[in-house]
Write a structure and sequence with these properties.
Layout: H1 2-9, H2 24-37, H3 48-61, H4 64-74, E1 81-85, H5 95-102, H6 105-114, H7 119-125, H8 135-149, E2 154-159, E3 167-171, E4 174-178, E5 191-192, E6 198-202, E7 205-210, E8 216-221, E9 224-236, E10 243-252, H9 255-263, H10 267-278, H11 295-318, H12 326-329, E11 330-335, H13 341-353, H14 358-368, E12 369-372, E13 383-385, H15 386-392, H16 394-414, H17 419-425, E14 428-429, E15 435-437, H18 438-444, E16 448-451, H19 454-462, H20 466-471, E17 476-478, H21 485-491, H22 494-504, H23 525-550, E18 559-564, H24 573-589, E19 598-603, H25 611-628, E20 637-641, H26 647-653, E21 659-662, H27 674-680, E22 684-687, H28 693-700, E23 706-707, H29 712-720, H30 725-731, H31 733-744, H32 756-764, H33 770-789, H34 791-803, H35 810-822
Parallel strand pairs: 1-2, 1-11, 2-10, 11-12, 12-16, 16-17, 18-19, 18-21, 19-20, 21-22, 22-23
Antiparallel strand pairs: 3-4, 5-9, 6-9, 7-8, 9-10, 13-15, 14-15
Helix pairs in contact: 2-3, 2-6, 3-7, 5-21, 8-35, 9-10, 11-13, 13-14, 13-16, 15-16, 23-34, 24-25, 24-31, 24-33, 30-31
The protein binds ligand GPW.
Residues 133-136, 139, 288-289, 336, 374-375, 380, 452, 481, 669-673, 691 line the site of ligand GPW.
Length: 839
Amino acid sequence: KKTAAAAAAAEPVQIEDDRTGLSVETLKRAFADNLFYIQGKNADIATLNDYYMALAYTVRDRLLHRWLGTIKAQLKPKVKVVYYLSAEFLMGPHLGNNLINLGIYDQVRQAIQESGLNLDELIAQEEEPGLGNGGLGRLAACYLDSLAALEIPAIGYGLRYEFGIFDQEIRDGWQVEITDKWLRYGNPWEIARPEATVEVKLGGHTEAFVDGAGRYRVRWIPGRTIVGVPYDTPVLGFKNNTANTLRLWKAEAPESFDFQAFNLGDYYGAVNAKMYSENISKVLYPNDEPMQGRELRLEQQFFFVSCSLQDIIRRHLYVGGKLENLDKNAAIQLNDTHPSIGIAELMRLLVDEHNVDWDTAWQITQDTFAYTNHTLLPEALERWPLSLFGSLLPRHLEIIFEINRRFLQEVSAKFPGDTGRLARLSLIQEGPEKFVRMAHLASAGSHAINGVAALHSELLKRDVLRDFYELSPEKFSNKTNGVTPRRWIMLSNPELAFLISESIGDGWIKNLGELRELERFANDKEFQSRWRQIKLNNKTNLTEYIRKRTGLVVDPHSLFDIQVKRIHEYKRQHLNVLYIITLYNRLKQNPELEITPRTFIFGGKAAPGYFMAKLIIKLINSVAAVVNSDPDVRGRLKVVFLPDYNVTFGQRVYPAAELSEQISTAGKEASGTGNMKFSMNGALTIGTLDGANVEIREEAGEENFFLFGLTTEEVYALKARGYNPWDYYNGNPALRQVIDQLASGVFSPGEAHLFEPLVDHLIHRDEYLLLADYQSYVECQDRVGEAYRDQEHWTRMSILNSARMGKFSSDRAIREYCEDIWGAVAVDVALEEYVQATA
Ligand code: GPW
């Protein structure tokens, strides 16, 4: 401690220019230096990965002064820090993004070129950190990007999964899961901070006692402890001095564990305990929305939340804050209910460990936490069996009971005699098996609750959280999702970014509303032709990639019709397939039929235990096999399933898309964010009035959007009066033909019954109303095909879509969170004087 203080007081030493300089010469030298001294290689034996690592360290060196400056700026009293708690952060590769945010893309490209290498190849070398399933995790990543862009002090807290989302391979048309060994070659972007390790208790029991001051207290005697070791990754703002932190926790065994066992001579017991502890951060659960009530998952949630809250309190006390004022220094956002155990854990830390009285602790907790809901699907709402919960977190269960007792008292006071309401609002679901309802815990323990698109927020108030809305309407607001234009336009679509900047300046990158200025080019022939040429180039790139990955040759001049997202019945990839088969049948029945040549492209992973989703993947591949090998439709129809859809692949796909499929059953998709990425990059949307589609259409103009399908109200009404898919099957010959073909094995030669489960579900139950929406979808798709023939008009619509997507920048979303929920403001970051970054 003393030595450190003395060192800090000493005259600063000049840090070498070789680690900060931005000239091409300096960059080249640093790159060569890192290859030699960090990777321990020279050009004779270096692999592409060695070069990637050498470049990554070169870039990392150049962001460290910002990172340290930001950490210092955040550790000042009175600064309010946003803590974003999320079980998933789907960051995507860092290298290209960091080059953009540092504003050194061009110098680095040149330096790498002059070193005899190709920057794109090095960027492609990075193994993407896939620490998320889909939209929810990617949203967290976009929000970190915007927080840094807006210079808001923020820390993202999550789990450092050793295995992220599985890699997907397709064998014989079926999905096969491969473990994602993303840390295999090391991770140059993270720094371990073992000195900031924290302890987490699990299991055991509680004991009541009376403390020295005569107060009733409870202590938790854990069954076991684990430690959390933080790994920090910098998150740069766009061309500013902010570099926030993503802090991910790795679970390890405490030292004491082994020693105890060693003393007894139980070496294997000790090693076993160590392995058991490390299990907690081993693997990301690959189920997207439906929850799976596994004990290990609850352990993961509690583990990272407890580590993070202890860290937050430690920071707060370090800057001299008082616990009563935690909410003045900290805004904690719950990314869905996955971290909502934090409400009970903060209560425990305050009441049990810091001796704060209950009422004060509850006030602090409510003022500090806010909760974002991301789904209306009943099967995705987290609830934990009381027995499981109590055995892992005995003290938290007691605390939840006490929160509930007081909470229901308040409800009774407001709605006397309304016992039905009490049962509906209770944090505990009664019945033969009792459950803790995590959305109720999150709602009761937060001062703000929000949905992620206008429609979704309305439905929340009307359905899932209706009673909470009636109790505390002031807590509710909408925060429509957004995505970062840095990754999703600049990095993914550099040619388009260049054209836009050339036309309207580059202010749009920080202020996406400025894209509106593109409207004046919508009818400009010269601009239109450049716009089209860029789309064609991006399509050609994707074509090349498709050929490499699947061997399929597709025509870059055909309409690129793309659906990429997790595979789910509610997202209705199979509705898309019903249309493909319809088109196929038309072409077979009328070989002379003129249609707009189309390439249907799919991508997405299915949860490994979700049979229907896996069958949908098989269906797409089976239909592709028949269609792609049929000479009768050659040149007019192609179907591609691209394996292993992830962030990296998304960056190739959105810029190449012309039609974006957003076809979920109305009322089921909370927001969607892919819909925004497509539209920004000039794809037109075919979609239902669901999630953020509603607002995208509002912004783009209804004449620039292909709308079909039942509305949410119509879906409710139809279900209420009794939906019978048979009626649609019987009443629509084209539909009946498609279903009959699936049922009879036309697309599964030799396995006639393969798609029976799908067909059965469609004609008997059809929970997601595919048959009800089929005709409307087909007609809409036909209009798309027609519209594409008028390329001038199509291009105009495409330009207008991009021009009007300013609202969907995550910068706008984060500004709204800051103003309405967090009370967070920008903080200037001063760079240390001893580093003089010179270009
Ligand atoms: F169920 N979302 C997701 F709400 O990707 F927790 N995974 C999830 O587990 C959940 C939601 C959860 C998605 C929504 O489906 C999507 O509509 C939304 O755009 C996205 O979260 C971000 O808000």
